[in-house]
Amino acid sequence: MSHSSISHAPAQAPSSPRHPFDLQGRVALVTGCNTGIGAGIAVALAQAGADIVGLNRSDASQTAAQVQALGRRFVPIQADLSRTEAMADVLAQVLAAAGQVDILVNNAGIIRRADALDFSEEDWDAVMNTNLKSLFFLSQAVARHMLDCAAQQGAQWRGGKIIHIASLLSFQGGVRVPSYTAAKSGVLGLTRLMANEWAAKGINVNAIAPGYIETNNTEALRQDAGRAGEILQRIPAGRWGQPADLGGAAVFLASSAADYVHGHTLAVDGGWLAR
Ligand code: NAD
């Protein structure tokens, strides 16, 4: 090979990923990543090369240490997503600290359990505000920011990815969790609506529906030996999931490998919905 052919070989653009799942150079905003599924997803995205902005109510130093051990940046942001009025302010705080958001993972969520006959308005509002209203308005703020990036960067802009964490109760009714079922069914609908409005603008909106995962969210279920046994028996994979089980789906949906995937809710459930 001549010297000139080497010097004229097309250089790889610094912004184009080497591998379709490579997230190097991407900044991912992950809500509620101090523990559980959010922590599993933040670490998986960092393993694939992304820097992480962790939006949490409380200390996320354990996740920060795991992300930093992978050689990635972890930017901590403190915010309470039950306060739905402040999503534009929250994003301003994120952008001041991190500059740009390429990937949003709406993971933060809570659950309240009581019979539908007794369910309180307080438990309704708490879950709907955190799991659905904040998810919508944070997505709106991030999508506006992504479209500003698109306008400023033109052909250099690599597109935006929004991933919501849905649930099996996006597909099924559940029992004793009315506001959670309403919110997570709403998340599936909003995933489709946002995809319909934003797909042509270069933003992919998709969701992941975790099955039964061992986190704080399912502690009460796991302590009820009868319920825990019934659940385990019904999972084709024969085990509960771990937070790390969600990592692959998150990396896929955050990456250019998913550029033509829009409005889909991907179950990662050990086969539960196939049953
Ligand atoms: P978890 O309780 O361990 O984590 C929930 C996260 O959300 C925590 O980081 C918490 O601090 C954060 N959060 C809650 N309220 C917040 C607020 N007001 N402001 C900021 N952050 C807040 O539970 P998890 O199972 O890891 O849950 C993560 C997501 O996965 C939730 O949306 C949950 O509904 C969903 N999910 C969980 C399961 C499961 O089996 N564990 C199944 C389906 C869906």
UniProtKB/TrEMBL annotation:
Keyword Ligase: no
Gene3D superfamilies, per database record: NAD(P)-binding Rossmann-like Domain
Region annotation Disordered: where it falls in the sequence: 1-20
Top EC category: oxidoreductase
Short name of one Pfam family: adh_short_C2
Enzyme Commission number(s) of this protein: 1.1.1.127
Parts of the chain that traverse the membrane: none
InterPro entries, sorted: 2-deoxy-D-gluc_3_DH, NAD(P)-bd_dom_sf, Sc_DH/Rdtase_CS, SDR_fam
GO molecular function: 2-dehydro-3-deoxy-D-gluconate 5-dehydrogenase activity
Alphabetized PROSITE patterns for the sequence: ADH_SHORT
Record's keyword annotation contains Transcription: no
Alphabetical keyword list: Oxidoreductase
NCBIfam families listed in its UniProt record: kduD
Family: Belongs to the short-chain dehydrogenases/reductases (SDR) family.
Designated name of the protein: 2-dehydro-3-deoxy-D-gluconate 5-dehydrogenase KduD
